[in-house]
## 1
Amino acid sequence: MSIDTQPAPQPTTRDRGPVAVHRRLPKFAPPGLFLAGVALGAALSALTGFSIATAIVYGVVLGTLAVYIASRSVEGRRKATDRLVTSLVTTAFAIAMVPLVSLIYTVLDKGLPRFDSAFFTNSMFRVVGEGGGAYHAILGTVIITLLTTLISVPIGLMTAIYLVEYGTGRLKQAITFFVDVMTGIPSIVAGLFAFALFTLLFGNDVRLGVMGAVALSVLMIPVVVRSCEEVLKLVPNELREASYALGVSKWRTVVKVVLPTAIAGLGTGITLSVARVIGETAPLLVTVGLITGTNLNPFDGRMATLPVFAFYQLTQPGTATQAFIDRAWTAALVLIILVMALNVVARLISRFFAPKTSR
Amino acid sequence: MAKRIDVSDLDIYYGNFKAVEGVNISIEPRSITALIGPSGCGKSTFLRSLNRMHEVIPGARVEGKVVIDGQDLYGADVDPVDVRRQIGMVFQRPNPFPTMSIYDNVVAGVRLNGGKMRKSELDDLVERSLRGANLWTEVKDRLNRPGSGLSGGQQQRLCIARAIAVEPEVLLMDEPCSALDPISTLAIEDLMTDLKEQFTIVIVTHNMQQAARVSESTGFFNLNGVGQPGRLIEFNPTEKIFSNPDQKATEDYISGRFG
């Protein structure tokens, strides 16, 4: 191969300057080629009887191929592989987003018609057809979730503190193991556990809000333990040692140094574990049941909750079927909004409580 | 305030592993004692055993005697928390509490121990400690800013201020300058020279010039091989260690023939 005297525009194996100059596709070319491929795919799909699914599949495959081939012939193998993998990763991301977007769209579409003030101010008391609302179910969900948090957070947080700060040897291993096992408990089992426990204590046919809180706690405690444990482990050991070296006792170090340092992570973890149990249906179905009226006392009789409310609206519609189905969708929408709000709260907590490093 | 430390036949273990063996040393009050030696020879381990920080590590234990002004630190009725209140420590990496302001970091020793002080007393304590650590003029206008916003050298001096705010008898320093630039190092060395008027200071350092500059006495630690316990090879006045050491190993180490 002859040696070029001019600066080589093409990559060659011998004549490499200090910085090899590669030919690049113009910036608009890859997206343009991809779109061309998509168009071709759509056309191909139209040939075999058009459907949106085949059009997208053909289009993405052809678009990716078009970009790869163009890049391979102009830019070389390494860059082409880079573009191919970029396309694959982007496609995987798009596929992962499909159910989420579709779900949110569907819930908004079907839930918005009844997303009105009546829904938030009325219960289902003496409602058999249209109208009515989930006032009782929203409050029930809030009360039972608060109660669950009240039970789970102290137990879970203290377990995590024990595991990270105090636990050693067999006992620590055993607790870690059982927490892992508990994380995998099917929610209906937690419900049946609370059901059996309260039946033993108070006899047959007992239905209380607090039963639901106990059942949900069985699900929430391991999640709280796990997330708090991870966060506490992140607190640098140097801070504990700094505190010990000042003659501070261990429990004061935990309370005044470790917990404040980790507060952002702990708040985030706990909020996310609340979000994890707020939509549980099965355990509440067997423990709390459902009523049409408003019961705000978790220690006295059945209560309504959003997931169970949605379940019964859907499975046991009364005379006006569509009204019941609409309410079910709106209940689902409210539940999603609650979970999203909790996630936002978690983010705010981690932003505002994180240790400040700015000058 | 400063106190004398007598160590006799000290063995230090991590579980079954003997990390340091047979240390006998007498540390004079109101002086700076430097500990030098190659990595892994047990100088830091020994330093941490002087205020019972060693036993914070699971499985770590100590045999032998550490006596401070007649009181055995490892006596059966001695609470390690009380020991650490008397013997302060500064660590290799500056570790101010990230959740606290500069002010709160300095008074952390008082506040975390549940001590109640009036605001004016706390203000005095903060100013006294920060002046003592040569940091007052640099931070007096931003006492309520987070301590982690300071530079590395300032953070380390903040940690020293925090350590001297609880008015310990002894100050242990575990390579306090190894993460700092030469100028910050100089500031800390000057500070140590001031502090030895009040405190007994023991410093672990990898920097032999530093040991030669600041200390009155120097101890040389070494180990015979990997997996063997570290030993105190020689303990003598710094001048003697650096000019005419008793042991061949010390001379080899100082002149750079090994380690």
## 2
Amino acid sequence: MGLLLIPGLALPWLLGIVVLLSLRAPLRSPSAPGEVAWIAGAGYLSGAFLLTLWMRALSLVGIKFSVLAVGGPLLVATIVLGWWVWRRNTAARSDSAQRLPSLRQALSAPELTPLACAIWWALLAWLALRFALLGIEVITRPLYPWDAWIQWATKARVWYELGTIVPFARINEWLAANGTAWFDASPEYPPTMPLLQVWSCLVLGRWDDALMNGAWWQIAVAMTLAVYAGLRSLGVAALTALVGSFLVASLPLANVHVALAGYADLPLAAWYTTAALAFLRWIQQRDWRHAALIVLLLVACTQIKNPGYFWALTLVPALVAVLLPRHGVRIAFAGFAAAIILMVVVAQFRLSVFNYQLKLDFDPAWAELAQSYFLLGNWHLLWFGVVAASAVAWRHLLEPALAPITLIVGAGLMFLFFVFAFTNASFYIADQTTVNRATLHLAPLMVVFMVLAWNEFANGWRATHAPLATA
Amino acid sequence: MPEATPATVAVPPPALPAPPRVRTALWLLALALVLCTAVYLALNIPGSWFPSATSKTLGFRDFTLTRGTGGQQGDALVVTGVDASGTALITANSDLRSSDFPLIAWNANGFSELADVRFLWRSDYAPGKLNSAPLHVSAGRLLPLNLAHNPAWVGRISGVALTVRGPLGTPIHIGGMTAKTGGLREMAGDRISEWFVFERWSWSSINTLSGAAEAQELPLSLLLAAAVVIAAGAWAALAWRRRRMESLPVVLAVLFVAAWVTLDALWTFNLARQVAETRAQFGGKDWREQHLASEDGPLFAFIERARARLPAPPARVFIVADAAYFRGRGAYHLYPHNVFFDPSNNTLPAASSLKPGDFLVVYQRRGLQFNAEEKRLRWDGSPAIAAEALLVEPGAALFKIL
């Protein structure tokens, strides 16, 4: 393994961490619930995307990729920003709330009963085992899954070997290009994930289609941290938040997408989930820094996989509900109704969007969908849990605390339903191909929704059933 | 001035209810699991709960491919095609007492969900009559067939067969057939063993996971979900009687997480087995050795030899192969050359699209002819083009277009 690989993989993580630290609202204490995990989780996702933007800029101005050209300026930026953050923290050192907690403080279970404490450590150990297994698999197995080697790593190989981003084109353009454009199965796919693979190979010093996939493992870790942090900052107790992040980290299909790295579905899920969590955090403080992070993460969604544009739009109903607290939910529902009408109208024209043919033949394969969600091994008990949590918390779903996440997942489910019911993707439900990969984009956020809904139900239940004590 | 009343405040409960309540909930979950399993067995055991007979297996060598194409490969009878009437048929002689074996289970995979698959048999009760029953396909496998209530399943079964009509898709692999007694022990053992089957990575893993055996009659997720609902209901009933319902949300969460952890423990075990297998296959090898040890090792080795004869990248290279897998993988190994391949169809490029200085890699592709003396290459009725063979191996070649 190349000596530079580990520091090279750590660089975007550190960059993202210092960017988030520098963007951190001065009023937000670093010892606030989940703050360290948020900076680490959202930090990686921000830093990794910034790294790819930098590589695209280098390619645009004609500078060849190298460890120095790509990593040097980013390292300098990391150091400078880190120094500035350190200076700012030093100035605030007298305020104990502004100090960063130690690693031990960050990991330790806060004020739990012995049983809860045992569960806390057991879950951490379970998570460590899971990521250890996934880590070994991802660095040992050369690129395996089909699309990874016909449409994703194809670009990584060419760009790494040529040291710059060269265009990929469809067959007719490729034939006409006379050797100036390259070809693969999906030339129009965005470059973010291949560029992360290129960076790994640069720091490794050679092409290696096993070791270049470390980013998938990092993304899974970052998403787990972000989910924990997001739940904590939304008022969920530490153990419950850890259970939520465990549920996300143990989704079998998400695990497969780490172990058999190379597809962009898990990365899209991670960026989208973190963007939605950043949005929910933003609602609490309405700070421009949070807004900047949301924009960065949503732009990243569009640059990871083409459906990212649609996933980014699923935050719009929640934004409307938040900005217009009196009528926002009604407007959002009116928007849903309008979207349904629009779907039916648009489907009549048999348009093609991102290679999906729209059609009006409403014939979803319900049995196969139910088999995928409830009976096969893709999601453990996720969809049972979502149904149960929605049922027990139904009174709270549109209350201010839950309405934004309810509207986001509602819009997400609607998007999935549209894809399955009104496009040629419905064929892929029957053969269990695209259905689960498309669902993976939303699945981690469904876990967040499930935990938040249960939390609201539990809070409401406590308020009415807690034993009364005499003060 | 009114007398001051003591203030009452709600005391938030601890994050988890007292251990005894959690323990009660978990015991109820265990009981519910047993109950659900018992109900399943009661509804599904086809005959005697404690039969005296033992199951009988016919191996793939006992079967004959009577109609269709294929043959024995490794540890299976492989059916690769149907006959002119669109049917494949495999037959075997048997000696089974029908009343002892109400269940027929096939160890076979590769079936299309669109195919009409049927189990056929002859008995000494009506030797001239051929009986049949439809078989259901799930995830490419055949679900066990319960013949306990089939009036034609009588007497001594002297011959069995499997017929497939319709699209085959991929080749069908038949490992054998087991006539099962369907007793309590066997049925419970079968269901439990389905949950522990090692699900190794396959091409479909990135799209879907079975969660152990490809076809499960009783999915563990469904069983656990049912058990959680029953246990939660039982706990709530007990708590309601004792007026101690305050822990309900936490108990619901504990039951759900316990069920999830059960599933995840099996998944972790499966993942650990897969990691061990991956390490055995690829561990300690460098990048090239890993690819030589992969499923497409021979293709990779050929492309490496072809690359040595190509100029420095990027040369324009076309690759053709009958199998989409070899076209895509071959192209992948050829980058950063400027490669063209047809990702979805087994087509050959128009001869006019190749120009001097281009290269053509052919790997296990029929329909190309090369005249070495005249240095002419042609395919699919296209006009011959001038080409030079740079590398020729059995089933594979590299040409330079002149």
